[in-house]
């Protein structure tokens, strides 16, 4: 699946006549192999891959370009940290507000059900939906157990 994503991104950039530099291809490869990443994680991965330091502005410029092309989503965690991920037609995340765990839910049946419902909502306001991003907040199982243990003492 991730190789397919890399190939799709390369084709999109070719169609848009965007130069496929070594750094840009390495960035695409790194993005295609990770679910979520920060800029610092991406830079570290690129430097590990290329075995050399990377121009940080080049990475930021490429991320901006991919955001503009709607190939990446940016997610703000705890109002401070930005986490990026490749766009898929449906993105569903859960975030624990206690330990700040952030997870992607992979459920095609749930995603299809939600997409169908969201498309109906869009149609009701004359809006054509092509993808969605959903973020749910609450307590993960571990934090619920910890809080329950504390409350029972």
From TrEMBL:
It holds the Pfam family FUR. Gene3D superfamilies: 3.30.1490.190, Winged helix-like DNA-binding domain superfamily/Winged helix DNA-binding domain. PANTHER family: FERRIC UPTAKE REGULATION PROTEIN (PTHR33202:SF7), ZINC UPTAKE REGULATION PROTEIN (PTHR33202). One of its GO terms (molecular function) is transcription cis-regulatory region binding. Zn(2+) binds at residues 96, 99, 140, 143. The gene is fur. Its cofactor is Zn(2+). Signal peptide: none annotated. Keywords: DNA-binding, Metal-binding, Repressor, Transcription, Transcription regulation, Zinc. It comes from the Bacteria. Binds 1 zinc ion per subunit. This is Fur family transcriptional regulator. The keyword Signal does not apply. GO terms for biological process: negative regulation of DNA-templated transcription; regulation of secondary metabolite biosynthetic process. Belongs to the Fur family. InterPro entries: FUR, Fur_C, WH-like_DNA-bd_sf, WH_DNA-bd_sf. The keyword RNA-binding does not apply.
């Amino acid at each position: 699946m991730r190789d397919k994503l890399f190939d799709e991104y390369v084709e999109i950039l070719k169609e848009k006549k965007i130069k496929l530099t070594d750094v840009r291809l390495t960035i695409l490869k790194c993005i295609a192999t990770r679910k979520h990443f920060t800029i610092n994680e991406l830079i570290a991965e690129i430097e590990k891959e290329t075995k050399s330091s990377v121009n940080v502005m080049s990475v930021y410029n490429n991320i901006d370009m991919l955001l503009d092309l709607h190939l990446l989503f940016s997610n703000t965690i705890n109002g401070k940290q930005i986490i990026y991920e490749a766009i898929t037609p449906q993105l569903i995340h859960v975030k624990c507000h206690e330990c700040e765990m952030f997870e992607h839910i992979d459920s095609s049946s749930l995603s299809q059900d939600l997409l169908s419902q969201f498309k109906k909502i869009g149609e009701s306001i004359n809006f054509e939906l092509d993808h969605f991003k959903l973020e749910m907040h609450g307590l993960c199982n571990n934090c619920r157990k910890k809080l329950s243990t504390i409350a029972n003492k």
